[in-house]
Amino acid sequence: MPELGKYAAEVMAAYGVSLALLAAIVLLSLRKGRRARAELAQTEQSLGKARKDG
Amino acid sequence: MIALLRRDLMLAFRAGGGFGLGLAFFLIVTILVPFSVGPQSDLLGTIAPGVLWLGALLACLLSLDRLLALDFEDGTLDLLATAPLPLEAALSVKALSHWLTTGLPLVLAAPVLGVMLNLAPSGFVWLVSSLAVGTPALSVIGTFGAALTVGIKRGGLLMSLLVLPLYVPTLIFGAEVARRGAQGLDPVTSLLLLGGITCATIALMPFASAAVLRMTLR
Amino acid sequence: MSLWEYANPVKFLGLSARVQPYLWAAAAICVSVGLTWGFFGTPEDFRQGSTVKIIYLHVPAALMAINAWFMMLVASLIWLIRRHHVSALAAKAAAPVGMTMTVIALVTGAIWGQPMWGTWWAWDPRLTSFLILFLFYLGYIALWEAVDDPDTAADLTSVLCLVGSVFAVLSRYAVRFWNQGLHQGTSVPVATGGRTVADVFFYPLLVSMIGFGLLFLALVLYRTGTEIRLRRTRALLARQGRDA
């Protein structure tokens, strides 16, 4: 751990907030992406079945 | 074109609300300012140019909702889009009628409200001229915002969100002219820049508005 | 073989799937190396003390905030002119990432400004321009959400992006006219090829900037893929509804 002197709180806060924001956008993107993938797979499957039945 | 202008003006005068509303809003905002910042006359004099400009801008914004929404609902816009008159021209006329019913009354009312806010005597000419030069830009930019959100249900709030950032340059230069005028500095440079913005927006924005409106109506 | 082949969603997804693992890895490496190096491996500035370490977040985020808007502008133009859906969706996918970058730049700037300038916020031209940029991102995203028909939404947001760019540039100069600033000059002036930052601080900063750029690319590719899949699901359901 480097010696941050009297500005330790500011530096840590800046890193904390920024990394949290980056993590948030990455995780939100991944979650949305996974959901979209699952939805598409499900739709394609059910449609394929419907076509076969019909 | 003149028929369209006359129709819009008639509607604004007769249907009530449209005409006086912006002016009344401007009046109320200005009257409320002393209650919120205190009655010291030197403080009021300092902030008067900015407050008057902001009030005028918000009054313009408030009346944009009705600019296209009613015509969209009753199908007038579809007629205009297929009429021989180019949509760009029709929207310019719309912006002009908006300015005549909202911007012009604001310009005329501003000196009276300036007295109430203890504006410096040297500032009146510049306040009025900056509003006269700047408010047309507000109407034209506002028409773009109205065209952008016309197809959206309850688009009023969204329109404010979209239009306000576009108002920034006009507001900066307009308030700068009024402020410099009130402080006895030379406001001509700012006034010229403000005029430049107004001319450019009048020349270009109708094309953007018409393009957007065609996309919505398609 | 031309670049336009990747306007085909299937081709785009294929390429994007092949490239993405490398991109994510490179982005992760560059960001963590740049930030770790900056955080642990650089000395304190004799005037700013340890707050100089915030630069490794602030400058790359600010850089990407502007570049993201620029990318959206180019993508919007491509959509308006050539009507490639992937392009419109890429612009949509980039907006939240750009907005995050803007927020990071604003927040780190405020945290740095408090000890250095003695204030969290000053109405300085650069700060104000970034605030306006943030508002533009907000409006752009809100407009995408508000319009139901996807093609109309793409059209409207593209025009908003074009008009917004013009006004953003205009505001940038208007704001400079309005108030002379506190903010220092640019740290890495590309146009002149010079730099105003000492080497010890510059190299980790460079790595970090590359890392943020790669991270942005990876995120946009991934998010564009998401949008393409959502659009496809929607189209399939619509077709099913028509058949039934």
Topology:
The complex is a heterotrimer of chains A (54), B (218) and C (244).
Chain A: H1 8-53
Chain B: H1 2-14, H2 18-37, H3 41-62, H4 65-73, H5 76-82, H6 87-116, H7 123-149, H8 156-183, H9 188-217
Chain C: H1 9-41, H2 55-82, H3 85-117, H4 125-146, H5 150-178, H6 199-243
Tell me the helix content of chain B.
Answer: over 70%
What coarse outline of chain B follows from CA principal-axis ratios? elongated
Order of helices and strands of chain B: HHHHHHHHH
Whole-number average pLDDT of chain A? 82
Main sheet record of chain B: none
Helix content of chain A: over 70%
Number of E strands of chain B: 0
Task: Give the rounded overall mean pLDDT of chain B.
Answer: 86
Q: How many strand elements of chain A? A: 0
- Count of the domains of chain B: 1
| Spatial extent as radius of gyration of chain B | 18 Å
**Content-based structural category of chain A:** mainly alpha
- Given helix and strand content, the structural type of chain B is mainly alpha
Helix segment count of chain A? 1
Euclidean distance between termini CA atoms of chain A: 67 Å
Kindly describe this structure.
The complex is a heterotrimer of chains A (54), B (218) and C (244). Chain A is mainly α and 54 residues long. Chain A contains one helix and no strands. Chain A has one helix at 8-53. The longest helix of chain A has 46 residues, at 8-53. Chain A is rod-shaped. The termini of chain A are far apart. The mean pLDDT of chain A is 82. Chain B has one domain. Chain B is built from nine helices and no strands. The mean pLDDT of chain B is 86. Chain C has one domain (18-243). Chain C is built from six helices and no strands. Chain C has helices spanning 9-41, 55-82, 85-117, 125-146, 150-178, 199-243. In chain C, helix 3 (85-117) runs antiparallel to helix 4 (125-146), helix 3 (85-117) runs parallel beside helix 5 and helix 3 (85-117) packs antiparallel against helix 6. Chain C is globular. Chains in contact: A-C, B-C. At the A-C interface, helix 1 of A face helix 1, helix 2, helix 3 and helix 6 of C.
